[in-house]
Every structure is written in structure tokens, then in C-alpha cells.
UniProtKB/TrEMBL annotation:
This is Metalloendopeptidase. Residues 60-283 form the Peptidase M12A domain. The keyword Transcription does not apply. The active site is at E178. Binds 1 zinc ion per subunit. Zn(2+) binds at H177, H181, H187. Its EC number is 3.4.24.-.
Length: 503
């Protein structure tokens, strides 16, 4: 296939006849896809677009046609299609036409997309292009590429070639024609239903730019019926040239001698705009404005246009919650820069009762160990009313330390007779409020038994200090690291005062 050729223009066919050229290219993946369908693609029809680097999300679309639905701006109510001119474009010259003038006219023409469709062509600089996944790169330094484009959106640069004279072609409609290719459109005369309206000359029927597409979802070789009538005014319709046998390249259906009545509408036809909006899946109206001032129904919302309909979202610093009735509201978000406030730690109260074991008369034992029960009840009461965790235990002490070294780790008399700290909550039943009296009695009984194991009486000075040091330092007591610690000395004052005659 020979590319880039002009058709001879016969003076006999009238002033509306324009030269047409092969103008639509494809990337490697699209070509491979077509070849897998049995359509032979000339290597010269393949351009340098990347086709398979956009990541898994679009991998399924690679080789077909990717739409510019990746960048929706709800404030603009548009899909944004960024484009930039390659460096040096304004200095191009072709004949009497300059790149600087071409840039002006291209900008004026593509601005009509914004007015007529939900696409906004956004002019950016080459530096800014790195901010976008996909951009259209307008360049024009290859005279042989004339006015041409790839199909759909590529990753990175999507090339549109605009020689410095392209803005003059077909009364300016060639500019948006090439951009429409980039938006995913093929030629109007390639529609799957075109045989009802036109006949393509046998010389051109296998030319990619004239090939009849098959019905199907929009694809590199397919035509999606977007419910628009065949359109001789479309900017995507070629004007008809004349073939060597004198017949039109495109004639009316079934009459090879009658030239197809193509008359492109600048800047695009109504059907071009309609098809593009349908292809993008969007409504043109401002959905938020149409919905009225209280469209989101609650404070701290903003309305965002979507391609179809609108969305109510919370303003910055607020987040959306939906109540049981399905009504949404916006509440202030927690400050992400501050740590969540932890609940205040419970104060641990560790209390050990140090009981005099030397005065272990049975009456004394009974009264002292009964006191433990009272202590546990009060501890439970404190836990219930205050943010405290209350633990208790007991140790024994004696007046005979100097004789038998009770307060050493090897002493079974004191060390093993101590009761380590336990949480008073373990004396509450599963219902969380009833005190387990049986367990209280067990503690009392255990206390009495242990007390009875100490020396039975004596008349020596009692060694409270040694007992306290041992109680405070023994690992066996299981003190909490961060507890408030206290030791209660339970001594047989009554016994002493009576015996020593102090009362
Ligand atoms: Zn074209």
C-alpha cells in the first residue's frame, strides 16, 4: 500500500472536491489486534504510541480503543483531554503557512469541543504533561505525515501530526477531524451501515481509511451504533476524490456515477457532537445546577457533577455518614494529625495486709482474717465507683526472725504462706454485680490456716520492719509495676496492750 498520496482532482467534479489522504494510524497493539482478525496492516500504518504500559486496569483495552474517560473534572463538568505542542512547533514552516499561525487556529478549533461536548481540550505546556497519564502531543515536523492521527488514548503521548498547513484543509475541519480520531472515532463512511448510503470505489474498498467496520462495541475494527443517523455533514466523512476510471471514490449507494453529497459542517456537525457525548457516556447539562440549591440536603456538602447525574460529597474536613433512615449527613472528621485520645488508664491499687502471725490465738485469727473479707468488699465497691483496679494480698510476720530467719526466700514459714495480690473483681460472679460469698469464705479460711502455721505465740519484740521490707520486695507478691502500693500492718494491739498493762 502506498501511503500519503493525493488523489488527482478532476476539474469536472466541481469546486467542492477536496484532496483526501490516508490519515489514520494505529499503535502496535491495535495493529496486532486487527491482524488477529485477519485484517492485514501495512507497517507504515503503525505509529510510535505506547500501547501497553498503562497498567493492569487498561490491559484488557490494549489493542482496542481506549477512551478519554480517565480524567473527569466535576467543576468543569467535562472530561479533560490535555494537549500540548511539541517544542519548536511554532517555528515550523510549510509553504506560506507557519507553525505559529497553525497553533492559533488549532486552539480556536479544539475549543469547540468544550462548547459542544463533554470533552474539554486543555492546552498545557510540555513541562506539565508529566502530571497526566495521557496527553495529546501535537507535532508537525514530518511533511510526509501531513495531517494524521492515531486512534483513541494511549499511555503517555498520543500523537497528532499537524503539518503547518493542516489548519487550512477542508475549511478548517481537518483539525477537529484528527482530534476526533484521537478521541476514538474512525470515519463516518466506514460505519457498518454505510452501504445503505454510500458505495466505495473498488480501488479503495480495502484501504484502511475506507474499510467498512463490523457491528460491535466501539473497537479498532468495529462500529458501535450510537443511535445517530448517517451523516454526510460529519467532519469524519471524507470528501470524494476521483479514481482513474473517472468515477468518484465515494458515490451514493448503488449509483457509482453520482458523487456522495459530502458537506462537512464546521467546527463539527450536530451528530458529531451527539456521537461524541454518547461515546463518552455523559450528559451535557449541568446536573448540579439543574438539581437546585438544596440538592444535597444538608450542610457541609458540595455537589459534584458526574458524567451522568451528580454526587454529593462532604467538604474538606468532614466525612459522610448515612443514618438508619438512609439520610446522609457530613460530620467533622477526626484530625488526622493528632493521635486518638486513649481512654484514661485505670489506677491500680495494690494493697498487702501484713498480719502478725505470732499472736495466732484462734480468736485473733478469726477476727483478722474476717477483716480481709471487709477489705475485698470495699475494693469491689471502689472498682465500681472509680476508674480503679483494686488488688489485695497478705503476708505474715513474726517476732522470731532472729532465731529462724523467716524472711528469707528459703523460709517456708513466711514466703510460702504469703498470698500474692489478686484482683478483687475475681470475687464478683459472672453477672458483674453479685459478690461470690463462697470465695470470700475460702480466702478467710486460707488466711486462718496460714496464720496457724506460724509460731504459736511469743513474748519477743515483733519485727515489723523486716516484714515490711520482705513484703515490699518479694517477687512472689506480684506487685504491678505502675500500681499505687500500700501495706497495712494488722497487729494484735489488743493483745499487747492487755498483756503489758498499758490500758
Ligand atoms: Zn481521518
Amino acid at each position: 500500500m502506498k501511503l500519503f498520496k493525493f488523489f488527482a482532482v478532476s476539474s469536472a467534479v466541481g469546486a467542492t472536491e477536496r484532496p483526501e489522504t490516508d490519515d489514520v494510524f494505529m499503535n502496535q497493539c491495535q495493529a496486532a489486534y486487527l491482524e488477529s482478525k485477519g485484517i492485514k496492516i501495512d507497517q507504515e500504518m503503525i505509529i510510535e504510541d505506547d500501547c501497553d504500559k498503562e497498567g493492569e486496569e487498561n490491559r484488557a483495552a490494549v489493542g482496542t480503543v481506549t477512551r478519554w474517560t480517565n480524567l473527569w473534572d466535576p467543576a468543569e463538568n467535562k472530561f479533560i483531554v490535555p494537549y500540548y505542542f511539541a517544542e519548536g512547533y511554532e517555528d515550523l514552516v510549510f509553504g506560506k503557512h507557519t507553525g505559529a499561525r497553525s497553533m492559533e487556529v488549532i486552539n480556536e478549533n479544539v475549543a469547540h469541543f468544550e462548547r459542544l461536548t463533554c470533552i474539554k481540550m486543555k492546552l498545557i505546556t510540555e513541562v506539565e504533561k508529566d502530571d497526566y497519564t495521557s496527553v495529546i502531543r501535537v507535532y508537525g515536523d514530518d511533511p510526509n505525515k501531513e495531517c494524521s492521527s492515531g486512534i483513541g488514548r494511549s499511555f503517555g503521548d498520543s500523537f497528532v501530526h499537524m503539518r503547518a498547513d493542516c489548519y487550512t484543509w477542508n475549511e478548517g475541519t481537518t483539525i477537529n477531524h484528527e482530534f476526533m480520531h484521537r478521541l476514538g472515532f474512525l470515519h463516518e463512511h466506514s460505519r457498518a451501515d454505510r452501504d445503505e448510503h454510500v458505495t466505495i470505489h473498488a480501488n479503495k474498498v480495502n484501504d484502511w481509511n475506507y474499510r467498512k467496520l463490523t457491528y460491535g462495541p466501539s473497537d479498532i475494527g468495529q462500529w458501535e451504533d450510537l443511535n445517530s443517523p448517517y451523516d454526510f455533514n460529519s467532519i469524519m466523512h471524507y470528501y470524494s476524490g476521483t479514481q482513474p476510471d473517472g468515477l468518484p471514490t465515494i458515490s451514493v449507494a448503488g449509483n457509482l456515477a453520482v458523487r456522495a453529497p459530502v458537506d462537512r459542517t464546521w467546527p463539527m456537525s450536530d451528530q458529531d457532537a451527539f456521537q461524541l457525548n454518547a461515546y463518552q457516556g455523559c450528559e451535557m447539562n449541568n446536573k448540579c445546577a439543574d438539581a437546585g440549591p438544596n440538592r444535597c440536603g444538608a450542610p457541609f456538602h458540595v455537589c459534584l457533577n458526574q458524567p451522568i447525574g451528580y454526587e454529593c460529597v462532604c467538604v474538606v474536613g468532614f466525612e459522610r455518614v448515612i443514618d438508619a433512615d438512609g439520610v446522609q449527613t457530613c460530620i467533622r472528621s477526626p484530625d488526622p494529625t493528632s493521635e486518638p485520645t486513649p481512654p484514661p488508664a485505670k489506677l491500680v491499687q495494690d494493697m498487702v495486709v501484713m498480719i502478725d502471725g505470732s499472736g495466732s490465738y484462734s480468736g485473733y485469727r478469726e477476727a483478722t482474717c474476717d477483716g480481709l473479707k471487709t477489705l475485698i468488699r470495699r475494693g469491689i465497691d471502689i472498682e465500681e465507683k472509680r476508674n480503679e483496679k483494686f488488688r489485695f494480698g497478705f503476708t505474715l510476720y513474726s517476732d522470731r526472725t532472729f532465731m529462724t530467719e523467716e524472711f528469707t526466700r528459703t523460709s517456708s514459714r513466711v514466703y510460702d504462706l504469703a498470698m500474692p495480690l489478686v484482683d478483687v473483681s475475681t470475687f464478683v460472679k459472672d453477672d458483674g454485680k453479685t459478690i461470690d460469698e463462697g470465695k470470700l469464705d475460702d480466702v478467710k479460711q486460707s488466711c486462718i490456716t496460714r496464720l496457724g502455721s506460724m509460731y504459736g505465740g511469743g513474748d519477743w519484740e515483733e519485727d515489723v520492719l523486716s516484714g515490711a521490707i520482705w513484703t515490699r520486695s518479694a517477687d512472689a507478691m506480684n506487685w504491678s509495676e505502675d500500681s499505687a502500693k500500700s501495706i497495712i500492718v494488722a497487729t494484735d494491739v489488743h493483745y499487747w496492750t492487755q498483756e503489758r498493762g498499758l490500758t
